[in-house]
Every structure is written in structure tokens, then in C-alpha cells.
Specification:
Length: 290
């Protein structure tokens, strides 16, 4: 299957996953939820073991994957906090900014030149952020101030910084270290489960809440785990096959547009047309940056 078809499949299932995450987080705390989900994900990811030759796995690849998984786990937890405290149509579009972060970091730290198309893309990203944050009777710079002042938005920007790093590490592990996608899937979810267990043990969440949360949402979490494994696996395959990591990431970010439209309707979120337009502008900007 072509990489762009895999990226689109990943986008579709990622959108469904985001909607389920919002639904579950109405009743659950992000820490206990991510831990429970990581256990179900690990159980499903174990199915990939039959296709893995453990003796042939490079130790260096696993060490980099452990680092990448720790950063990814923290990023995922930050996104869950944002989803719990904001509307889907407010927080998810900001995840489209990842290619913009990569381009800016490359310019600042690596001295990489920005093309006219990339500069135009960055301008569209800024315009999309502005339109996304607009409200009635606001001052000129209020949308940008809101992003800085509201705590829930900070979770997204922390996640963006982490995703910028992990998206680059994905291709390094799969292409340079030549770790097969099936091994990547199993060990990543094994590391996720261990990391979220540690976070859970050091949190204030009690075991009784853990049991209660499983009882309340077990069917939705199992469904979410299936969607999660599908979108992560197809994303890994797309990243491995695509001519550039950012191409696969941008196409996969169409999930945000799907989630904004479907989730926004489902949860009766406000100003949905404006937010959909802002999301489309953000995606267009990301495409130009790539």
C-alpha cells in the first residue's frame, strides 16, 4: 500500500480515537486514563511479537526507542490534559503546527534556510492560530494572549515541542537503525505501559479509582485501544515509506480536520465553521512548510 494511503487511514482512525478520548475524559482523570489505555494497547501490540525476531533487534535502536517513548508518553499525557480542559476544536488544530516548529528549530539551531514557500506556510500557520482564537468583541492581539495565559494551551505547546523531537526520532529508528515496524510497535507500547505505570504510582490517583474507571469505560477504552493501534501502526508504515517524515506527518494531521468537524458536531462545540476554516488554513500552512 502507498505511504499516502497509509497516512490517510492513520488520519481517519486518529480522528475517531480523539473523539473517544474526549468522551472518556469527561469522566476520568488523564493519568489513570492513560495508564489504563496503555495496558490495553500493550495487550494488542503483543500480537506483533509473532512477526519479530527478538535476537536480531539492535540494542541501540531499543535505547533510542526508549528515549523516544518517554518523550512521546509525556506529549500524549499533555494532549490528554488539553483535551479534557478544552474543546476538541480548540486544542487539536494546534497539533498541526509540528512542521512549523521543525522548520523554525532548523532555522534557529541548524542554520537551515527558509524558502519562500516555507515562509508563506509559516504566515498561514500564524493566521490559522489567530482565526482559531478569535471571539466576539476582542482586542487585536487577544487570540495570541489567550494562548499564553490559559494553562490548558500550555499543555499543547509542550506536546508540540516533544512531538517535534519524536517525529524525527521515528524515522531515525525505522530507517537509520532499521528497526522493523512490528518490533517498533511492541516495544514502544511496552515502554509506554512502564512509563505510565510509574506516572500513575507517583500520582494521587488511588487504586479504587483505577478499578472504578475500568468498570465505567472498559468498552470505550477497548475500542479506543483498537483505533490507537491501527492509527499508530499505519503511521509508522507511512513514515518508513514516505520520502520525508514531515510529508507523512502532515497528511496524518488531516485527522485534526476530521475530529474538529465530527467531534465538534457531536459535542455541540461553538463557532465550528470558523474553527474548521482555521484548521484548513493551518493544514495548508503545514503543507507549504513541508
Amino acid at each position: 500500500m502507498e505511504w499516502y494511503a497509509l497516512a490517510l487511514i492513520s488520519a481517519l482512525f486518529s480522528a475517531f480515537a480523539a473523539i473517544l478520548e474526549k468522551k472518556i475524559l469527561f469522566k476520568q482523570h488523564p493519568i489513570s486514563f492513560t495508564f489504563i489505555l496503555s495496558l490495553f494497547n500493550l495487550a494488542l501490540a503483543s500480537l506483533f511479537l509473532s512477526a519479530v525476531d527478538i535476537s536480531a533487534i539492535p540494542i541501540n535502536a531499543l535505547l533510542v526507542l526508549l528515549l523516544k517513548s518517554a518523550l512521546n508518553a509525556l506529549a500524549f499525557l499533555m494532549v490528554m490534559y488539553a483535551i479534557k480542559n478544552l474543546e476538541l476544536s480548540e486544542c487539536l488544530p494546534l497539533l498541526v503546527l509540528t512542521p512549523g516548529f521543525i522548520a523554525i528549530f532548523g532555522f534557529i539551531f541548524l542554520g537551515e534556510a527558509l524558502t519562500l514557500a516555507q515562509i508563506a506556510g509559516l504566515c498561514l500557520l500564524i493566521a490559522g492560530i489567530y482565526i482559531l482564537g478569535l471571539e466576539d468583541k476582542q482586542k487585536l492581539f487577544s487570540p495570541f494572549k489567550k494562548l499564553v495565559q490559559i494553562k490548558a494551551y500550555r499543555y499543547i505547546f509542550i506536546a508540540l515541542a516533544l512531538f517535534t523531537t519524536t517525529s524525527l526520532l521515528d524515522r531515525f529508528i525505522l530507517v537509520k537503525q532499521k528497526l522493523v515496524p512490528e518490533a517498533f510497535m511492541f516495544y514502544q507500547h511496552l515502554f509506554f505501559a512502564a512509563i505510565f505505570l510509574l506516572i500513575f504510582l507517583f500520582s494521587k490517583d488511588k487504586l479504587v479509582n483505577f478499578r472504578k474507571n475500568i468498570k465505567l469505560s472498559w468498552f470505550m477504552i477497548i475500542s479506543l485501544a483498537v483505533f490507537t493501534i491501527i492509527y499508530r501502526y499505519t503511521e509508522i508504515l507511512a513514515v518508513k515509506a514516505a520520502p520525508a517524515t514531515a510529508l507523512a506527518i502532515v497528511l496524518k494531521r488531516l485527522s485534526v480536520f476530521f475530529a474538529v468537524i465530527i467531534g465538534g458536531k457531536l459535542f455541540h462545540e461553538g463557532h465550528l465553521l470558523r474553527k474548521a476554516i482555521a484548521t484548513a488554513i493551518l493544514i495548508a500552512g503545514a503543507v507549504l512548510v513541508v
